[in-house]
Amino acid sequence: MIELDSLVKRFLHKDKEARETWKTAVDGLSLSVGEGEIFGLLGPNGAGKTTTIRMLTFQTAPTEGRIFYDGKELSEHERELKQLIGVVPQHVNFDQDLTVGENLELHARLHHMGKEERRQRIAELLQYVELDSVVNDRVRRLSGGMKRRLLIVRALIHRPRILFLDEPTVALDPQVRRRIWELVRRMAREQVTVFLTTHYIEEAEALCDRVAIMNKGKLISLGAPLELCRKLGAYAVEWDGSGGREYRFFRERKEASGFAAMFDGQEKVQVRRTNLEDVFIELTGRKEGI
Ligand SMILES: Nc1ncnc2c1ncn2[C@@H]1O[C@H](COP(=O)(O)OP(=O)(O)O)[C@@H](O)[C@H]1O
Ligand SMILES: [Mg+2]
Q1: CA 48 to centroid of ligand 1, rounded, Å
Q2: pLDDT of residue 74
Q3: Which of 29, 145, 221, 290 could form a disulfide with 176 if both were Cys (CB 3.0 to 4.6 A apart)?
Q4: Within-domain flag for 36
């Protein structure tokens, strides 16, 4: 169980004249995540997702607020709780001149794993993600998708109970993205709690049991993707209106179709299911979306 209690992170910014101002990246975030859950933080660039993950993984201290894993406060049990977590960062950060095996070995040693245990765990995980054939290749030679899978392997070596992934499928093609989703689902089935960030709507909808939608550091909505869409109305009608694309939401498809039938054909009317992007736009009024 992960609990965030009124988390705040402010950064000090200096402008050209060296005037200092505080910028709030995360603004009073409270939520909890259950064991074995796949939880997603969804929001546009700059929403505060990475900053939140960094606070949850000992990379930066909160300005205010507290974090608990299984009721234990992070700042007071750092050594113990660090062993509980695995972290997949937003950017690939291997030593690219070392081989796949060497990189993983290094990580396993940092976690004080014995030689035999290291060997077995690395072999098992590489097989699991079908990277066993490249164990002796330099990381530099792997494709983007392979490097991403390798980041996940590295995060899993010491058998963490909570896996953090920051934008795990950014810039990957749809096929590779699906393989990573499958891997994440497999981890959740093994009772690993998964906490991920994404700015892809489909990723949050396809993968997450629950999502927290963030904007400008604040939580704007929280719940299962379907539940959030239903709250707004499960069916959307969109059309070209006087102020650009316009939207209305309905509980039943029949109501939506009835409304759409009243247009005369010039407005490019579409009836479809409501998605999380609609939820975001409706709650923030921001047309550019997530
Ligand atoms: N180390 C830092 N120093 C100053 N400002 C930062 C730092 N990290 C993030 N920020 C600012 O905090 C805000 C949130 O950033 P971030 O958490 O990276 O958002 P996201 O991951 O959702 O794109 C942004 O405005 C960003 O510029
Ligand atoms: Mg980020």
Answers
A1: 6
A2: 97
A3: 145
A4: yes
Question: Which of helix, strand or coil describes residue 136?
Answer: coil
- Ligand nearest the Cα atom of residue 54: 1
* Structure letter (DSSP) for residue 134: G
Q: What residues pack around ion ligand 2 (CB closer than 5 A)?
A: 49-50
CB contact at 8 A, 208 and 40: yes
C-alpha span between 3 and 30 (Å, rounded) = 7
Residue 58 is part of which domain span?
A: 2-225
Residue 56 lies in a domain: yes
On whether residue 290 sits in a domain, the answer given is no
Do 117 and 250 sit in the same domain of this protein?
no
Ligand 1 mean position, distance from CA 216 (Å): 10
Distance CA 30, CA 268 (A): 41
- Considering every ligand atom, which ligand is closest to the CA of 44? 1
- CA triple 146-152-154, angle to 5 deg: 100
Q: How many CB atoms lie within 10 A of CB 111?
A: 16
Name every protein residue with a CB atom under 6 angstroms from any ligand 1 atom. 11, 25, 43, 45-51
Spatial separation of the C-alpha atoms in residues 277 and 122, rounded to whole Å: 39
User: pLDDT averaged over consecutive 10-residue blocks of the chain (290 residues)?
Assistant: 97 91 97 97 94 97 98 96 94 94 96 94 92 96 93 94 95 87 92 95 94 96 96 96 91 96 90 94 82
| Pocket test residue of 50, 219, 220 for ligand 1, highest count of atoms within 8 A of CB | 50
Nearest atom (ligand 1) to Cα of 167? 21
Q: What pLDDT score does 173 carry?
A: 85
Give CA 177 to chain center in angstroms.
Answer: 13
Strand-pair category, 210-215 with 193-198: unpaired
